[in-house]
Structure formats: structure tokens, C-alpha cells
Specification:
71 residues, two-stranded antiparallel ribbon
Length: 71
């Protein structure tokens, strides 16, 4: 089992260790990873949204030309 030393005092002959500090650090690391992956997903969705919007404009422009030629 792993422990993290929180306090070490030679004068008082005291050592304070914690195993929950390790788990908290691991959870914090996992939270940061999930937050960064969520940011990547949101950025990709935003880019796809912008890309599809530009494609829709081209489609609408072509449709407008067809309608104008039909009149």
C-alpha cells in the first residue's frame, strides 16, 4: 500500500502519513483528463457545426440559382 508523507518531525518523533491523499491526487488527474477531452469534443463539434453551416450556404446559393433560372 502506498502512503504520502504529510508531516515529518524529528523533534517530536512524529510522522503523519495519508493514503487518501494519493487517491485524491489520482481523482484530480482523472478529472483534468476528462475535462480536457470534453473540451476537445466540444471544439470538434463547434468546428463541425461551422463547417456544415458553410456547406449549407453553398447549397442554398445553388438552390437560389436554380430557382432564378426556372423563372
Amino acid at each position: 500500500m502506498s502512503f504520502r508523507i504529510l508531516e515529518f518531525s524529528k523533534e517530536n518523533k512524529k510522522i503523519l502519513v495519508s493514503h487518501t491523499a494519493i487517491f485524491k491526487a489520482e481523482l484530480e488527474g482523472e478529472r483534468k483528463k476528462s475535462a480536457s477531452s470534453a473540451k476537445k469534443v466540444m471544439k470538434k463539434l463547434e468546428d463541425d457545426k461551422q463547417h456544415s453551416t458553410l456547406g449549407d450556404l453553398d447549397s442554398l446559393a445553388a438552390l437560389k440559382k436554380d430557382l432564378e433560372q426556372g423563372e
